[in-house]
Specification:
Low-confidence stretches: none
Number of domains: 2
CATH architecture of the largest domain: Alpha-Beta Barrel
Distance between the termini: 64 Å
Number of strands: 17
Helix content: 25-40%
CATH topology of the largest domain: TIM Barrel
CATH class of the largest domain: Alpha Beta
Radius of gyration: 21 Å
């Protein structure tokens, strides 16, 4: 059992009392926090971190992303949602090889760790390769293998619902509990009613939930009313999706009846405001959802639409956009915004013992170096983190008590090798798509 002692940190606990501790200790043993404030006199650490000039807080939980899409970063720019999908992403993904997912996810892990993310909810293909990257990185993850289940969109490679069920059976609670799984039906606008009902059946049998895209555009909502006579949220609810633990990604174009369903079924909404801005979409009604009692977490979406995986940046955008969109500067104060990025994401992903710094919680935390001009003075630590800090200020990342980033250096991943491999694979995929386009146009 390794013991880790963090000394002299200013601490944003994000607990029920929202305690802020100055020059405090955090003692960690066997993956758990055993003291916050003053370490026991008889606590003998295997490693001690001098955290003077640092602020400790729970690590970030990225509640919706497509990690391996780091390989497509910058490949489909300045396009609206439908053209981004059809002319850019799906054409490039036709060149995706299963091993690409390992390298793209490993690159995402490097990027996320460097900006303070300790766990992510991934929705993509060939997820056994993503699981390998998670195992090696030391991060936590909720992995969902995307299934189109469509009459018009071919599946990626050998993907079937049965195959994804086998993935769940193999990897649920693997890597010492760091990996959890869900089923990943793509969306109500791609997946058929039959495939969605089958997903519900398989998920119930396996004891897991579903991670699905919902109500991303006005056209999706209009088509749902035309085809089904109801909104996408109501349609999925009638099919039984929301009877399971669920993450509804985006949920931008929702009405009050939809919000009532999301609250009643305890669905977690994963808002991704940077992608929404970049693709000229509206933004999720986060304040309305929270006020109605809906559980809201934050996601980056994939790097092909974000174009990075910095959840701290997303947290800042979330707070600013909600103030702007509501016309109320008092909404979503910094402490609440941080909770969306930490404990709300942890709960959405099933890591209920994380997202807070208190005795008995999982030791999933980060240290930001505050010895910098843009973080001085420290009148309001939460505001400093949300509105002044940068992902690059993260100096330590600790997951289950293991140091994954130490003084700005990754400890578990060969970053240079991963970057080289990802560069080659990304160029191959995008080049293949460009050649297909030239042949089609010629």
């Amino acid at each position: 059992m390794s013991k880790l002692l963090i000394q002299q940190a200013d601490v944003l606990t994000l607990d029920e009392s929202e305690r802020i501790l100055r020059a405090a200790d955090i003692a960690i043993e066997n993956r758990k926090i055993v003291a916050v404030g003053n370490a026991p006199r008889d606590f003998v650490a295997d490693e001690t971190i001098d955290a003077r000039h640092h602020v400790a807080l729970p690590g970030f939980f990225n509640a919706h992303t497509h990690a391996a899409m780091t390989l497509l970063r910058g490949s489909a720019e300045d396009l609206p949602l439908d053209r981004w999908f059809n002319e850019g992403i799906w054409r490039t993904e036709s060149a995706l090889q299963d091993e690409d997912v390992y390298w793209g996810t490993a690159l995402a892990a490097c990027e996320m760790l460097r900006s303070g993310t300790v766990a992510f909810a991934d929705h993509y293909f060939y997820m056994h390769h993503a699981a390998r990257a998670v195992q090696e990185s030391g991060m936590k993850a909720l992995l969902a293998w995307c299934v189109f289940g469509s009459d018009f969109a071919p599946e990626m490679g050998p993907t079937t619902l049965e195959l994804t069920g086998d993935f769940v059976a193999e990897f649920q609670n693997s890597a010492g509990g760091r990996i959890k799984t869900m089923l990943g039906p793509h969306s109500p606008y791609i997946s058929s009613a039959r495939s969605l009902q089958q997903a519900v059946h398989v998920a119930r049998k396996l004891g897991v939930g579903c991670h699905i895209h919902v109500s991303e555009s006005p056209e999706q909502v209009a088509n749902s009313y035309k085809q089904h006579g109801k909104s996408p949220v109501a349609y999925l609810n009638d099919l039984g999706i929301f009877d399971l633990p669920s993450i509804a990604a985006h949920a931008i174009y929702v009405n009050d009846d939809d919000i009532a369903i999301l609250r009643a079924k305890r669905v977690s909404v994963a808002a991704c405001p940077k992608t929404h801005l970049k693709l000229s979409m509206k933004t999720t009604r986060i304040v309305d959802l929270i006020n109605a009692g809906v559980h809201v977490a934050l996601g980056t979406d994939g790097a092909a639409s974000n174009n990075d995986l910095d959840l701290l940046e997303v947290t800042r955008l979330t707070a600013l956009l909600q103030k702007h969109d509501t016309g109320d500067a008092t909404v979503l104060p910094s402490m609440q915004a941080l909770k969306l990025a930490t404990q709300h994401g942890a709960r959405a992903m099933g890591f209920d013992d994380s997202g807070v710094l208190r005795v008995g919680a999982d030791a999933d935390l980060i240290l930001l170096d505050f010895d910098k001009p843009h973080l001085t003075p420290r009148h309001d630590l939460a505001a400093n983190v949300v509105h002044s800090a940068r992902g690059s200020d993260v100096n330590y990342v600790i997951v289950d008590g293991k140091v994954l980033l130490r003084q700005g250096e990754l400890t578990t991943l060969d970053e240079q090798k991963i970057m080289r491999e990802a560069q080659m694979r990304g160029l191959r995929m995008v080049g293949s798509a460009q050649r297909q386009t030239q042949l089609y146009q010629g």
